[in-house]
Amino acid sequence: MVFAGLVCRRAAAGLPGAVPPQRHQLKYRLTGLLQRFRHPFQPFGNLRFSLRSPFPLFATPLLLYLMKHATLPLLLTGLLTAPVLAQTTPPAGAPAAGQRPAGMPAQPAATAKPILSNTAKGSGRLEGTVLDAATKKPVEFATITLLPLSGNTPLDGGVCDERGRFKLQGLAAGEFRLQISFIGYATQTRNVTIGAGLTTVPAVSLESSAQKLGEVTVTGERDVIETKPDRIVYNAEKDITNSGGTAADVLRKVPLVNVDPEGNVELRGTSNVRVLINNKPSGVVASSVADAMKQIPADQIKSVEVITTPSAKYDGEGTGGIINIILKKNNLEGINGSVGLAAGTRSSNGNASLNYRKGKVGLSSSLSGFGFYSPNRNDLTRYLKDGSGNERLALEQQGDGNTLGGGGFGRLGLDYDPAQYHNLTLNVQGNLFRNSGNYGQFNNLLLPVADEFTRDTDRRFRTQSYDVNGSYTRTFEQKRREWSVLAQHTRNRNVQAYYLDQFAGRTTENAAKDYREESDNLSRNLETTLQTDYAHPFSETALLETGAKAILRRVSSDYDVFTSPLTGSNIDPVFNANRSNLFDYNQDVLAAYGTYGFSASKKVSFKLGARAENTRITGSFQQQQSDNSSVKQNYLSVLPNLSLSYQPQNPKKPGQTLRIAYSKRIQRPQIFYLNPFRNSSDSLNVSFGNPELEPELTNSYEINYTTFIKGSVLNLSAYARRTGNAIEAVRYIDRNGVNVQTFSNIGRNATFGTSLFTSVKPMPKWDVSGNLNVYYVSLKSPALSFEDGAINTAAYSNSGVMYNLNLNSSYKFEKGLSLQFFGGLNSPRVQLQGKQAAWTFYSLGLRKNLLKDKADLTLNADNFLSATRNLRSTLDTDQFRQESNNYIYLRGVRLAFNYRFGKVTQQAPKRRRSIQNDDVKQGSDGQSQQ
């Protein structure tokens, strides 16, 4: 398509290698319709050239020097002035003043001038306005071409401004043809007579050409899954089984992504993944990705992007990659929106959106609410080992309970274009989430001291967060050149509390109650981000990107524990100072990056860069100052990246791409892993974080091949990850027989794998896609020591082959009826000290379009062949072996209705930048570690 557009431009300009105008116009319109990308047709000049930049040779030393000797203000000042300097001194080979590369809007005050052959000049002027025939609104940046009465060699031309006006000056007197064109409209040609002065052309009304393509079949609908050079895109809005569901239901269908029955997210076998919303970090996922995925309605998700080897312009990412959830937003003129309701056996929700756009101003909003009900039951058996490896039964547990929860999610966005090439945005989003439940558990403790007791526990969890972000983006006539400044503030606040009564024996009679305990844990996470980025093209195939960023995090955990007194008959809880504390944690990250992409030939292109990040960490315990328990870290990280793309341009296999990539990433632990709060709601299985954790460093390698064969897509990749200082959960039994879980930087985590994705169309109305990921993981840890009970554990290692696969199939019947099936299988999971059993999931959906496709009714059934899934896990160490069964109720049926309203027209998309904080390792379940 790029090649076709270049040929068209050369044709219109009368340059060598041109095709006839009739052919280039048809090609260009079809290209624009397929891409659905609205930009002005530029039929003039802009010949290709190449400029080799020395930047890659000195990028890394320069970044090191800046991070070591310069402060953030200096970095920001340099980057803020870079665009100004670039404007005053154009680079060699840049387009001359008034010459506009294809795809870029012109300045309102002046019409872009073409590169033309020498023609007679005069004092004639030609002016006019171009309007949309249906709406009578201006057609921005329509192309104006002045042609002779015979022949197709342009004599002059330009583009309309943002009000649809055009002006040509210095014209010779005479009779000419004036051609007006724009993507999506039928081209008009008028005869004009130009005199010595001003000639005004009557308003030109362009009619949409969409309805005039009856003889040409153009399929513009996106596939459910698309493969791009650096990412895989899952178009959630095209998958009917998502209707009425949540983001967790959506992520289960994304290639390379796993979501277990509890909602924990993994990418290519690792939970070390950063989840973004609209390219930005969000307080919604600050404490728990699993909880956040329950809050976002599937009906508000447009697509999900998976980036496995990000470039240096992204923050230090981690072992797995980035999962970017894109929420629905449109560039449609007018008022439009949607409403949706879903009722089901496991969850119900309602959502609505309302959008308004007129001219330079656009508003978008959405609001949703949901509720869910989740019963559960589990059992656990533990065996202790002696020095010879012999096992003795130590503990038996059985429990059951239920959880009831709900909340809401809302967002409001404003974008404003004060002038051409300038864009301002302001966005606010927030969420509320609550859940509560009752859980009863019988404990039969045999070792080290026999004891039987029952615990009845009420749990409460609530969280709320908001994000406020704004940006200014400055684009230029020069294609791909832009400068942006962004700022964001995120706040997350959550409270986890439990209240338990303990009874002697297997009873809950009040007379048997002998112990009570209460706990209240308040966690806060404040994050402020400042960022600036600048992109400068040196040619059509060479692009330099650079930027600076500051992330300031303020995290705290204030936890109080109340327990029954050790003496006396009164069991009412009193404050326990030994188990209560206030933990403060501050993390500041200053970063700068540079990337340079260029083409070595028509088939080979490179992208290389480096990112330097300076991290400063301070942490302290309020009640342990005298114990010198503060945490301090200060380190500099240099993170290079490199990618090579090869496109053989084989006519028999169009679209082939071979990509080789390398990146080094850093992953800092989030509050989930750092929080020292000791969760003792189950007195025989406790957990807490480790505030002294250090960051992980990961080297990622990937080879990816993509091809398109007769409408089918094939994507094959091989990858390897090696993580040093990897953060993993470790467990041990203390001297009181309690299973303690915390986190530690183990020695090494290595993964080697391959993945295959394919999408085929056996019949015109039948789509089938599938993904297979097979990988080998090796975990190694040195001997670990813990102060709790003076326990020392031996060195551990575990390894094995794992896999996951999924299949998605849909068929469209007549009269708006469609059927879709989705299913997946995950193999047993290898862990450092054990493994987790395999699990499967599947969904069947039937949808009927109503009210002239403005509404749809969808019936979905999930995991309907069995009521529960057993998330069985086994732990096996030198001290103990433990088997647990966790039965999760996943069978569900839901009925969803969605209605879309509003009469709208398409408006051109804007080039914008957004904040992406993806440098922290997050927890999988905020309720277990807050």
UniProtKB/TrEMBL annotation:
Residues 908-930 are annotated as: Disordered. The keyword Hydrolase does not apply. It comes from the Bacteria. Residues 238-322 form the TonB-dependent receptor plug domain. One of its GO terms (cellular component) is cell outer membrane. InterPro entries: Beta-barrel_TonB_sf, CarboxyPept-like_regulatory, OMP_b-brl_3, Plug_dom, Plug_dom_sf. This is TonB-dependent receptor. It comes from Hymenobacter perfusus.
